Amino acid sequence: MDKKEKNLLFKYLDGELSKEEEFEFNKLVESSKSFKTEKQEYEQMRKFISSNAEKSLKPMFETRVLNELNSKTKNYQKNNFSELLAVSFRKILLPALIIIIFLLSFNLISSGEVSVNSALGIQNVSIEEAFNSTIDLAME
Amino acid sequence: MELAKAGKQFAYSEIMRRFENKVAGTVFGMLGKTQEAEDVCQNVFIRFFKSMEQFRGDSAMGTYITRIAINLSLNEIKKNSKHSFFDLESIFKKNKSDFIEQSKIHSLEGKEIVQAALNKLEPKFRSVIVLRIIDGYSTKETSEILNTPVGTVLSRLSRAQEKLKTILTPLMEE
């Protein structure tokens, strides 16, 4: 079978023959036994493939897909919430940092000494002072 | 809300019922009937339902779903290039006449032969055979699904058929 004949055959199998080609094709089928055999073999093969193709899924396929879909939607909502939280936190992160630094430096400047307690605004109170202030409160 | 959800589930079930055979034909044709292929079939519908908003309806729903099936199958092949399909050589080692007789009795054997022969093809040739011969898409639809020119589809189809014929004809003759 030459290239032209092969081309005609494949066009026939694909249903792509023009009127002229169809005429030529039919003539070939009638005149050439080998061409006819080739055509039959290809048709048989295509039929064999399409009738033996695996097309059945395991039982409960739909249920499995729906369950998977539901669990993925739940995970998506969960992930979406955490993502939203992270984004919101990122938005207030800078202003919060500026406020904290401002308050720490205000405490340090107003106390006049450099220590963790003064930065946090914790006063140094002796035991006596603490005791006296408790008694004063009780007497009031 | 619950009603809407129930309605959605009903629609999902209906879509799956309508297209599951086509998806199975595509994915099993590309990958063989394995557990991974079953998972891919599942993922095809999950991917479709998730991307339904992007589906603009300019192509048929079946074509759109099949495109997802082909893409996910090709990804699976890439991911696991040493896929252990049916071993064709071991099938040929069997007594051919006995084999073909069995294939007439049990269609499962015929399915094995077809799958083994398909696995002998490169994925780009296999995809064309699966879409044209197994799924029954036209050449134009196949070219749309594969995003490949019609001419390329036709030339791949003829080369793939020639190769399949050399593999399958001896088995079918007996």
**Stretches with pLDDT under 50, minimum 5 residues of chain B:** 1-5, 83-88, 90-108
Tally the structural domains of chain A.
2
Helical content of chain A (DSSP H or I, runs of 4+): over 70%
Give the oligomer, counting copies of the same chain as homo and different chains as hetero: heterodimer
Using only CA atoms, what is the Rg of chain A? 44 Å
| Protein chain pair with the most extensive contact, residues per chain | A-B, 31 and 42 residues
Number of strands of chain B: 0
Helix share bin of chain B: over 70%
Flag low-confidence runs of chain A: none
Q: Please state the structural category of chain A.
A: mainly alpha
Order of helices and strands of chain B: HHHHHHHHH
Q: Please summarize the sheet with the most strands of chain B.
A: none
- Measure the end-to-end span of chain A: 119 Å
Radius of gyration of chain B: 18 Å
**Average pLDDT taken over every residue of chain B:** 81
Instruction: Provide mean pLDDT of chain A, rounded.
Output: 84
Count up the helices of chain B: 9
Structural class of chain B: mainly alpha
Compressed to H and E, one letter per element, the order of chain A equals HHHHHH
Largest sheet of chain A: none
Helix count from the secondary structure assignment of chain A: 6
Describe the structure.
The complex is a heterodimer of chains A (140) and B (174). The mean pLDDT of chain A is 84. In chain A, helix 1 crosses helix 2 (19-31) and helix 2 packs across helix 3. Chain A has two domains: 3-90, no CATH class; 97-139, no CATH class. Chain A has helices at residues 3-13, 19-31, 33-51, 61-111, 116-120, 127-139. Chain A has 140 residues and is mainly α. Chain A is rod-shaped, with a radius of gyration of 44 Å. Chain B is mainly alpha-helical and 174 residues long. In chain B, 79% of the residues lie in helices and 0% in strands. Chain B has helices at 2-31, 35-50, 61-79, 88-93, 96-105, 107-119, 123-134, 139-146, 150-173. The model of chain B is unreliable at 1-5, 83-88 and 90-108 (pLDDT under 50).
